[in-house]
Amino acid sequence: MPKTATLILPLIALVLITSNCGSPECKTSNNIFATYSPDTKVYKDELVNQLTKTDQSKLTYWMSAYWSEPSTSPGVTEHIRVHLKGEDLCADMILDIKDSRKGIENVLKNKMLGYKGAEFKGLKFDTYQDSSKTEFIFREVSGIRD
């Protein structure tokens, strides 16, 4: 094999491996989503409000970030930020990973490396809301599509 091809093939493979999948573009007209960060209670409360008005079967969820942080209990708390898009909804959601990792074991194992921009299919989550905080708690996904 020529020396040029020997160098080019690994470079092409590297680009394909490290390239991100693309989530669809969307812009929000919601002032709360445009003004506040997705980790604030006011943003999360507005997201809960919008989700109750939305046909959830028409929502798509795209992974955008992963991070972990020390937990109050032994271990760490893991989070995945997803872009969600629907007919009249464009927002970000922070999913807290607590008891369930169903369908995202490899995402967590690899700390989302190679999964950024991939779509969650069949995402299920619970919402916990009280006067001091609002949380979206991951339950499961049925699949992940690049």
Question: What's the topology here?
Answer:
Layout: H1 3-18, H2 31-35, H3 41-52, E1 60-70, E2 76-85, E3 90-97, H4 105-109, E4 119-121, E5 124-129, E6 134-140, E7 143-145
Parallel strand pairs: 3-6
Antiparallel strand pairs: 1-2, 1-4, 2-3, 4-7, 5-6
Unreliable parts: 9-20
For the biggest β-sheet, the strand order reads 5-6-3-2-1-4-7
Question: Total domains, how many?
Answer: 1
Share in helix: 25-40%
| Helix and strand pattern | HHHEEEHEEEE
The count of strands amounts to 7
- Gross geometry: globular
How far apart, in Å, are the first and last alpha carbons? Answer: 32 Å
Q: Quick one: biggest sheet?
A: 7 strands, mixed
The computed structural class is alpha+beta
> How many alpha or pi helices?
4
Mean pLDDT: 86
Q: Strand share of the residues?
A: 25-35%
Radius of gyration: 18 Å
Mind explaining what this structure looks like?
The protein has 146 residues and is of the alpha+beta class. It has one domain. It contains four helices and seven strands, in the order H-H-H-E-E-E-H-E-E-E-E. It has a seven-stranded mixed β-sheet with strand order 5-6-3-2-1-4-7, covered by helices on one side. The chain is globular, with a radius of gyration of 18 Å. It starts with a helix and ends with a strand. About 8% of the residues have low confidence.
